[in-house]
Amino acid sequence: MSIKVGDKVPEGTLAEYIEVETEGCTLGPNSFQVSDLVKGKTIALFAVPGAFTPTCSEKHLPGFLELADKFKAKGVDEIWCVAVNDPFVMGAWGRDRKVDGRVRMMADGSAQWTKALGLELDLNARGLGIRSRRYSALIKDGVVRQLNAEKDAGLVVSDAGTLLGQL
């Protein structure tokens, strides 16, 4: 059963590759509790089946990068990109795509949080393992306010423009 509008997001751990060491965050992979990250914040989240994949790299992530300032202007505190990849891959993808802090590249390496959301995608038959379905969501103080999950492999309802229009 997948999460729906009005539900609180499940507890879980996401990892982020930190490029610049700060007080409280060391250089390299850092793990964060989702409940701590969402507390008191508005998060525009989008999830992709995999870093460096064609639709994800050429359409989904660029849309959120292009509209990042407009999301912030509408009260969004952070934009997250979540994928079932490790934090090293997510960090490399962020550098490659010149994310520069506009989007937090969050790794759910073992798909634990994705499974808790009920939004996993079984791509074992294609040799890709368990991944995330493509979706976007607006989370306010840990509660799902919008959820746009793709029915198929395309990018139809989870794009940045659609989520921005729902704010």
What would you note in describing this structure?
With 167 residues, the chain is an alpha+beta fold. The chain is 28% helix and 30% strand. The protein has one domain (13-149): Glutaredoxin, CATH 3.40.30. The strands form two sheets. The protein has a seven-stranded mixed sheet with strand order 2-1-5-4-3-8-9. The chain has a two-stranded antiparallel ribbon with strand order 6-7. The longest helix is centred in the middle third of the chain and has 13 residues, at 54-66. 38% of the residues are buried.
Summarize the structure.
Helix content is 28%, strand content 30%.
Notable characteristics:
Glutaredoxin, 6 helices, seven-stranded mixed β-sheet, 28% helix, 167 residues, 9 strands, globular
The CATH homologous superfamily corresponds to Glutaredoxin
| Average pLDDT score | 93
Low-confidence sequence ranges: none
| Global geometry | globular
Largest sheet, spatial ordering of strands: 2-1-5-4-3-8-9
Major beta-sheet overview: 7 strands, mixed
Count of β-strands: 9
Give me the secondary-structure topology.
Elements: E1 13-18, E2 28-33, H1 34-38, E3 42-48, H2 54-66, H3 68-73, E4 78-83, H4 87-96, E5 104-107, H5 112-117, E6 120-123, E7 129-132, E8 135-140, E9 143-149, H6 160-165
Parallel strand pairs: 3-4, 4-5
Antiparallel strand pairs: 1-2, 1-5, 3-8, 6-7, 8-9
